[in-house]
Amino acid sequence: MNPVQIEVEAAEAGFDPQRLARVDRHFARYVEDGKLPGWQLLVSRGGRIAHLSQHGMRDVAGGRPVERDTVFRIYSMSKPITSVAAMMLHEEGAFELTDPVADFLPAFAEPRVYTGGPARAPKTRPATEPIRIWHLLTHTAGLTYAFHHLHPVDELYRGAGFEFGMADHLDLAGCCDAWAGMPLLFDPGAAWNYSVATDVLGRLVEVVSGQSLDEFFRTRIFAPLDMSDTGFAVAADDADRLASLYVADRAGRAKPHPQHERVQAAALAPPTAASGGGGLYSTARDYHRFTQMLLRGGELDGQRILGDRTVKYMTRNHLPGGADLESLAMGSFSEVANAGKGFGLGFAVIDDPAAAKVIASPGEFSWGGLASTAFWVDPVEDLTVVFLTQLIPSSTHPIRSQLHQLIYQALV
């Protein structure tokens, strides 16, 4: 593996070096103030890395700093990878986006929608529309996450053991069967709700391809893109490179995860259920290669993962009527701010930077992860950004909006 390194001088890539230094100073204060344990930032323009920095510790108690090859939990930054996998199969004619999910996962054949009552005795009715594959890709399927704590159906998910995504005792097929047996929040296509939809999509990839999700990712995406440090578990030889996980206290300061030893140990074993919605570990180098493939229209170093028309199609707003997330999202939670942003097939997409209140380009696509990680791709500026850290929850600090401010002010 080639180590990640700067490939072009910042000025040559169109950045003012002194202005770019503001980014590092700003986020160094996050570490000095105890808000983050440590972080890593990679910025590329024109396909070459123009800025690479890290600050703080990957493990505070052990005194181990963030280094260029540190492995991070990317959580929901797994979702775009799963969406790419699904669209690779779509390009092979394996399904149409309008196909009912039940054609491949029969447990979803008769979805029912919540109409009232407590979680212990919910009232439901038949859904007016089947869950279709495009509903999974756009989070409009009516599914949910247990950690929302916003709806009685969220409570049903928690009661079934899905507090943070997957239930420990079930494989991926079993998880999908359990979700299929619980009510939807709304008729498919009627609203937007961040959910386990991408995990269901991962199971669909397994059924359609005949491979486990782990095997599909490894052979069809990670190996061709030379993403050797990305997967659903961390190799024992690389355990020391894994960043520890932290949670925010009431003052927004980072403290060790209360189950630190268990969480670290779990990273070293293949999961019972591979979560395409949030189960991957990766590095700045590897995720940079994934973003470069997207920026280049589906190809990198002679390896074509997707057709360029498919990437353009995935990264436009697919929400009904061209709505933004602010108007269509049922709950308040998202890995991005909602105003001015639509949702494509696995990515948030900026339609209106003024409404989004961020300096950005129309057409920028992005997502983030539970532990405050983030990435975006800006085709207009030929720019990609990857920010990695390990603090739960991602809503603790305005890292993503501030990162936008500081990156774009440095472009001259």
Q: Layout of SSEs?
A:
Layout: H1 17-32, E1 38-45, E2 48-59, E3 64-65, E4 72-73, H2 79-91, E5 112-116, E6 123-126, H3 133-138, H4 152-159, H5 172-180, H6 197-209, H7 213-222, E7 246-248, E8 254-256, H8 260-266, E9 281-282, H9 284-295, E10 299-300, E11 303-304, H10 308-314, H11 325-328, E12 341-343, E13 348-350, H12 353-356, E14 365-368, E15 374-378, E16 383-388, E17 391-392, H13 399-409
Parallel strand pairs: 7-17
Antiparallel strand pairs: 1-2, 1-16, 2-3, 4-9, 5-6, 7-8, 10-11, 12-13, 13-14, 14-15, 15-16
Describe this structure in words.
The protein folds into two domains: 17-83 and 216-409, Beta-lactamase; 97-209, Methane Monooxygenase Hydroxylase, Chain G, domain 1 (Up-down Bundle). The strands form five sheets. Strands 3-2-1-16-15-14-13-12 form an eight-stranded antiparallel β-sheet. The chain has a three-stranded mixed β-sheet with strand order 8-7-17, with no helix packed on it. It has a two-stranded antiparallel sheet with strand order 4-9. The model has no long low-confidence stretch (mean pLDDT 95). It contains 13 helices and 17 strands. Helix 5 packs across helix 6 (197-209). A hairpin with a 4-residue loop joins strand 2 (48-59) and strand 3. It is α+β, with helices and mostly antiparallel strands. The radius of gyration is 20 Å and the shape is globular. One of its GO terms (molecular function) is hydrolase activity. It holds the Pfam family Beta-lactamase. It comes from Saccharopolyspora cebuensis. This is Serine hydrolase domain-containing protein. Its EC number is 3.-.-.-.
